[in-house]
Amino acid sequence: MIDTGITATIIDMKYEEPKIHISYPRVGDLPDKGVQSFINAVIEDLVNDLLTNPENLHPGYEPGQTDITIQYIVEVNRNSILSLRFEVYSFPEGAANGFTKVKSLTVNLADGQIYNFGDLFIPGSGYVKVINDIIKQEFINRDIPQINEFESITEDQEFYLRDHVLVIYFQLFEYTPHYVGIPEFEIPYFAVRDYINPEGPIANLVEDNQY
């Protein structure tokens, strides 16, 4: 576990042009300026992909004829861990509904490591079944309609971190109809405490073994 207590200064950046409204973060005041530049470049690449990659936009997207809004939330910014949630909303002229896509980024502020889902837990420790069971029960408890039955998270599962929970999310139409929005599931750290990778980002957020 790398816990140097680093917290980034977050600078809110804006970009506006007709039909395009973008808000995105830049990090500042990191001790390693090379890491700072790297993280900012990764963020800019992610935002640019949200803006230009048709896979992230409404199926009826046409340049110059689609309203696009990109926003972000800083979910975690402490103990050297930064976790960001990005959302792009696109609405072509004449469309019946808009389209939302969510992406996220979790990175170590000390060394610039970008975390994948597999970095969160001890490999082969049984965490997949535990998380699957929680999500399946949440589908039932919250009476969430499904167009495809949820079976399991994936090796490259999309996620972000909050102070006390791991948030797993799925895109529109992955398991649910459009009107449900982006389904998100909170996995409390205490529920997966036996599987947390001691070298991963969740370990940095858990202080004095208080899950």
Unreliable spans: none
Most strands sheet: 5 strands, mixed
Helix and strand pattern: EEHEEEHEEEH
Fraction in helix: 10-25%
Number of helices: 3
Q: How many domains comprise the coordinates?
A: 2
CATH fold group of the largest domain: Heat Shock Protein 90
Q: Class of the largest domain in CATH?
A: Alpha Beta
Q: How many runs of DSSP E, i.e. beta strands?
A: 8
Based on secondary structure, the structural category is alpha+beta
Overall, the morphology is flat
Concise synopsis of the structure shown:
This protein has 211 residues and is of the alpha+beta class.
Task: Tell me what the structure shows.
The protein has a five-stranded mixed β-sheet with strand order 1-2-3-4-5. The chain is flat. It folds into two domains: 1-114, Fervidobacterium nodosum Rt17-B1 like (Heat Shock Protein 90), CATH 3.30.565.40; 118-206, Heat-shock cognate protein, ATPase (Actin, Chain A, domain 4). The chain has helices spanning 33-52, 127-141, 201-205, and strands at residues 9-17, 20-28, 66-78, 81-92, 99-108, 159-161, 165-169, 184-188. A hairpin with a 3-residue loop joins strand 6 (159-161) and strand 7. Helices cover 19% and strands 31% of the residues. By secondary structure, the protein is of the alpha+beta class. The mean pLDDT is 95. The chain has three helices and eight strands; from the N terminus they run E-E-H-E-E-E-H-E-E-E-H. The relative contact order is 0.15.
